[in-house]
């Protein structure tokens, strides 16, 4: 058994959201994700892993090519392998618990419109040429 206290593990940064990987197993990892108001993730996917976000505190909006959903305390979102998604945090700090499982935790980033410093890696651009995201 592995146990953690999410409140004791939270770490916030005003410049970017923090993903504190708490532990790993042979099939995945589990993370406490901490978001300041208004922070936004890149549009990304995990081609070989399912990603689950559970909202512990705060909340925001999860967006995929097929729509958006409010993320509120007690709710969770499941992204199957390859589903492009973006999280937009709401007006207060948020604490999310994330679980990824699959044979490879690789992230492919499509874009990050809210981050002017972002430059897509060539291998990610090639992945999305072969696997259009649908935005």
Description:
The mean pLDDT is 95. The radius of gyration is 14 Å and the shape is globular. The strands form three sheets. A five-stranded antiparallel beta sheet has the order 1-2-9-4-7. Strands 6-5-8 form a three-stranded antiparallel beta sheet, with no helix packed on it. A two-stranded antiparallel sheet has the order 3-10. The N and C termini lie far apart (40 Å). The longest helix is centred in the C-terminal third of the chain and has 9 residues, at 122-130. The chain has a single domain, classed as Jelly Rolls (Sandwich), CATH 2.60.120. With 135 residues, it is mostly beta strands. 10% of the residues lie in helices and 44% in strands.
Properties at a glance:
mainly beta; three-stranded antiparallel sheet; globular; 2 helices; Jelly Rolls; five-stranded antiparallel sheet; single chain; 135 residues
Largest sheet report: 5 strands, antiparallel
Tell me the series of helices and strands, N- to C-terminal: HEEEEEEEEEEH
Dominant shape: globular
On the 0 to 100 scale, the average pLDDT is 95
What is the gyration radius calculated from CA atoms?
14 Å
Mind telling me the CATH superfamily name? Jelly Rolls
What's the SSE blueprint?
Blueprint: H1 6-9, E1 18-25, E2 28-35, E3 43-45, E4 49-57, E5 60-64, E6 67-71, E7 76-79, E8 86-89, E9 94-102, E10 108-111, H2 122-130
Antiparallel strand pairs: 1-2, 2-9, 3-10, 4-7, 4-9, 5-6, 5-8
Q: Could you provide a short overview of the structure?
A:
The protein is built from 2 helices and 10 strands. By secondary structure, it is mostly beta strands. The termini are far apart.
């Amino acid at each position: 058994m592995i146990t953690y206290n999410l409140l004791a593990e939270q770490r916030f940064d005003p410049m970017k959201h923090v993903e504190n990987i708490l532990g790993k197993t042979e099939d995945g990892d589990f993370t406490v994700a901490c978001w300041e108001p208004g922070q936004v993730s890149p549009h990304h996917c995990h081609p070989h892993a399912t990603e689950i976000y559970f909202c512990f505190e705060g909340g925001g909006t999860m967006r995929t090519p097929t729509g958006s959903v409010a993320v509120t305390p007690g709710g969770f979102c499941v992204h199957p392998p390859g589903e492009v998604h973006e999280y937009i945090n709401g007006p207060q700090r948020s604490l999310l618990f994330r679980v990824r499982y699959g044979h490879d935790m690789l992230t492919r980033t499509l874009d990050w419109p809210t981050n002017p410093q972002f430059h897509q890696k060539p291998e990610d651009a090639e992945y999305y040429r072969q696997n259009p995201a649908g935005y």
